[in-house]
Amino acid sequence: MTRKMVFVDTSKCTGCKACDVACKEWNELPAEKTHLITSYQTQKDFTPKTWTYMTFIEKYENQKMNFLMRKAQCFHCAEAACLKACSSNAISKTDSGYVVIDHDKCIGCGYCEENCPFGVPKADQANKKYYKCTGCIERVENNLKPACVHTCQPGALEFGERVVLLGQAKKRLTEVQKTNPKAQIYGEKEMGGTTFLYLLLDRPEVYGLPANPTIPLSLTLWKDVIQPVGGIAVGGAGAAVAVGVLANLLRGNYRSSEDDSNNHANS
Amino acid sequence: MRWINRAKEKGAKIIVVDPRFTATASKADLFAQIRPGTDIVYLGAIINYILENKLFDRNYVLNYTNALLKVSKDYKLEEGLFSGYDAKTRKYAVVSWGYQLGPDNKPLKAESLEDQDSVFSKLKTHYSRYTFETAEKISGIPAAKIKEIADTFCKGKPGTILYALGMTQHTTATQGIRAYAIIQLLLGNIGKAGGGINALRGEPNVQGSTDMANLYNSLPGYLPYPVNTDKTMRDYLVHNGSFYEKHLVALLKAWFGENATKENDYGFSYLPKINPAVNGTFVKLFDMMEKGQVKLLFNVGSNPLVSQPNRQRVRAGLAKLDMLVVSDLFEIETAQFWREPGVKTADIKTEVIMFPAAFVYEKDGTLTNSSRWIQWKDAALKPLGEAKPDLEIVDALFKKIRKLYAGSTDVKDAPILQARWDYGEEPSALKVLQELSGYDEATGKLLPTIADYLKAPIGAASTGCWIYAGVTGNGNLAARRKNADPSGLGLFRDWSFAWPGNIRILYNRASCDDKGQPIDAKRKLIWWDIAKNVWTGDDGADVVDKTKGPDTPEGKQSFRMNPEGVGRLFAASYMSGMPVTPPADGLPAIGVRPGGLCVDGPMPEFYEPTESPTTNLLHPKVSGSPVALVISTLIGKSEEFPYVLTTYGVVEHFGAGGVTRNIPWLNEIMPEPFAEISKNLAGKIGVKEGDMVEVSSARGKITVRAIVTDRLQSYKVNGKDTETIGMPWSWGFASLSPGPSTNDLTIATLDPAGTPEYKACLVNIRGA
């Protein structure tokens, strides 16, 4: 299958949350107890039962209201940190660009969540396995649009070939920039290019997204440098120390302070 | 929103005027925050601007509106009151709102728009008081912004206006929409693709239910309801016009079949008659209950205990009933009013019966949208458990009732025994639609088209709703789903069926010039085919007679349903076709067709809401609408309740939440009611986002969570700082997601047509 893409055009989104309900319905996810958090937002983060939710940001400047709505879900990165971090090879990527978790293999180590620059995968406390947006891979492989795209009333979500939609997104950006000069594409280059690609009306930080999401350096060091070498050349106690240090790094000392504050803004 | 987004992509400018910056506003090119209930003043200022700067479409105004007709010399407006006001009854005598008539009983036409008696001059004088500056002082919208709206709208022709309940839930509801109509007529935006005024209905089948006489004062197809002084059909025709004779007879034939004959006045006496002095609208109904005037309420698909303004009245009314029958999917608040917290159940004698109703997807039938498309759907599922479609419930009830009356010779029982009721052993929704579509009563065959119905002699045809004539005449046209649109104008003529006669854009004659040719070559709807001598086009021609050319009196009529044949800038009191000599038999004369009346004035005038933080700048002595029907007895003053409350629905819940608050996924995305307040107000009362607040009015108080937001800004009204508080109203004490009802706060005060003023009342707020 060729590389696919979902174009999330936030300039058309009205924050109706129908995508959220369609996701829960298709994936048979139960509702969770919520209350209003800010603006019309009722869900503050991903959970094992909430794979997509709507964020609302209100920004008032120069007597102009910017009411920003963004559907959050797994980006399905081309260079996925979760996949790289996964200790049990439970996470894989499809040709179509989807990053999926095999729950038979998942051992609940949590490296995926800790390394994901967006904090997407979440553990089910009952079975200790991690869950996140599947991109409706089973629908897509049967020539259906993802549930969220299928239901989107204002036409803010589009599904198609990445090469085609990317061009469309750029064209749309030129149009939107006429009235929203700060508008930008997010996901073309980020994380090697994401399957869910956004047209944002403002800087990513305003939406609580990292400006330059990356695979944590510690993870790259571990996976691409030390682990391959370590397995062969470094033996005994030395290796154990290295593993210990890096495991600590993997457990969370990778995010910049800016990213941390963004995560709070997002919640 | 999908279509608005698409229009925007094609270069349309979007203007949003709302008391709050909404999600829709976030997509707009231009947003203005308005004080609730003051639309007429800024729209009046736009009308004034159009007239003063001659921005109107002169040809259209001259030929397709009543601008040149001469208004009665007795007409006037003084101190906020139109001529003919009776302070005792709070009603107008409308005779002075008529035209000057010639010897042929037709309106006199002025030579020019400048004629002081012309409708156009009256319009100009009326709105000369509505300057941008005055509009700013009253509405809180800066004058420059109103000018920008006016310029944008006047330049972007054709322009369309979309509105919803924010415009209509006021004591000046009808007049707000009339103001839109005047703007659209002046700009020549009616009858054209991309023009018009579009009601975005609050429910998917509001149009259909209104077509089918959901209002207490109309019969199906908007036939006026007979009143208690109409002893015969002739009496009815005297004040309603001969136009209605054919349609009323066809309705009586549909309902009583062969028992409706010329000899028995087609069964006119079988119809109940209303007392015109009693306003029997939905809100008023509960006061009649409280007074013991109603014994039984059959409540279908409605949750008045949550949805009615000043809803404490509803509880009091329901408690006085002998019996309440609720037909719904869930045991909604109305059905369990007797166990609302705080109610003394032991004191309530009302017997309550619950009917399990089928959901929309479990029944066949039609939904009519506000473009008048009658759209058929088949049931997708069988109803769960004992649930039944509404049609089955009503059918079973009627059959049982008729059995109970069998053999009765009492005159009042005759309608039940004489009715034609033939929808089958298991009632078929298609048979009901066919009854609406109409039969040739001699052959029992369906009439193919509305033209066949209109051609049939009086009494020879039946139709249960004459405007639906032909919907199933050639197969079930409402079920058509062809998605082709060769016009490229979104007409989709083979998708379902639009009443009347599958015309997609009403008054489309006005899209043509005096030769009958399209004015806008890019938006061709219909045209006069000179070679074939017939009106033709991509749309059905909305003309009196398709064979009458543009140079005939019939072919000139752009608004054929109006007695003047033109659009009405001034809603005059007028009956066309009044005979010059009275009938020889001495009986009162019968005209042809009356003009639609707005009983609160021939032109929209601005009035403050019943509860207002200020006094009407235009006429302080007549501040609120002089014809509003104020039902609430507790009215707040701005000293005690300084803030304006406006109420609305949320996208996550539907109406009073009877269904949606029982759906966990919807409760997850909107779990509770709230009060939206400006940061300024939050600071003043020491509240931050997420805190609980108590909101109170003269009628009640409730506690909800506060949303502190920049989407509401403080504004100035008559120089005074003012705040709007916004609250959704979809919650009640029952369901999976119970919550306080905002309608504990709202005021029951009605537009003369019966719409309550949900959108503006006075409240106070404090941290809870």
Provide a concise account of the structure shown.
With 267 residues, chain A is an alpha+beta fold. In chain A, 32% of the residues lie in helices and 18% in strands.
Tell me about the largest β-sheet of chain B: 6 strands, mixed
* Unreliable runs of chain B: none
The largest interface is:
A-B, 36 and 33 residues
Tally of individual domains of chain B? 5
CATH class of chain A: Alpha Beta
CATH class of the largest domain in chain B: Alpha Beta
Q: How many helices of chain A in DSSP terms?
A: 9
General shape of chain A: globular
Number of domains of chain A: 1
Task: Quote the average pLDDT of chain B.
Answer: 97
The CATH topology of the largest domain in chain B turns out to be Dimethylsulfoxide Reductase, domain 2
Distance between the termini of chain B: 37 Å
Description:
The complex is a heterodimer of chains A (267) and B (768). With 267 residues, chain A is α+β, with helices and mostly antiparallel strands. Chain A has a single domain (1-214), classed as Alpha-Beta Plaits. In chain A, 32% of the residues lie in helices and 18% in strands. Chain A contains 9 helices and 10 strands. Chain A has helices at residues 18-26, 81-85, 111-115, 137-140, 147-151, 162-177, 217-232, 236-250, 257-266, and strands at residues 4-9, 53-61, 64-72, 91-93, 99-101, 122-124, 129-131, 157-161, 184-186, 196-200. Chain A has a 4-stranded mixed sheet with strand order 8-1-10-9. The longest helix of chain A is centred in the middle third of the chain and has 16 residues, at 162-177. The radius of gyration of chain A is 19 Å and the shape is globular. Chain A starts with a strand and ends with a helix. Chain B has 21 helices and 33 strands. Chain B has 5 domains: 34-191, Dimethylsulfoxide Reductase, domain 2, CATH 3.40.228.10; 208-274 and 422-472, no CATH class; 282-363 and 384-405, Rossmann fold (3-Layer(aba) Sandwich); 508-557, no CATH class; 620-767, Barwin-like endoglucanases. In chain B, the strands form 13 sheets. Chain B has a 6-stranded mixed sheet with strand order 26-28-27-33-25-31. In chain B, strands 11-12-13 form a 3-stranded parallel sheet, with no helix packed on it. Chain B is an alpha+beta fold and 768 residues long. Chain B is globular, with a radius of gyration of 27 Å. In chain B, a hairpin with a 4-residue loop joins strand 20 (526-529) and strand 21 (534-537).
